[in-house]
Design a protein that fits this description.
Layout: H1 2-16, H2 34-48, H3 59-62, H4 65-74
Helix pairs in contact: 1-2
Length: 75
């Protein structure tokens, strides 16, 4: 899973112009807005072939890279 964590970190850096740690807030901190979050999810879905269920696209499930990876493990 560290490969996907690194991939997501790189993508967040591209979208937010800032390197983040795996447990750093992306949404609550307002680092990513709704548009950049969707852009991130699209790239992750293209990379992994997994689709995030609509009900999981919120800060409860996707606020950190670690949380995103946990969701990916359940898909």
């Amino acid at each position: 899973m560290t490969d996907i964590q690194s991939f997501i970190q790189d993508e967040v850096k591209i979208l937010a112009f800032k390197k983040v740690e795996i447990n750093e807030s992306l949404i609550k901190s307002k680092l990513l807005d709704s548009i950049t979050l969707v852009e991130l999810l699209v790239v992750i879905e293209e990379k992994t072939g997994k689709t995030f269920p609509q009900h999981m696209i919120n800060e409860e499930y996707l606020d950190t890279i670690s949380m995103i990876c946990n969701v990916l493990e359940t898909l």
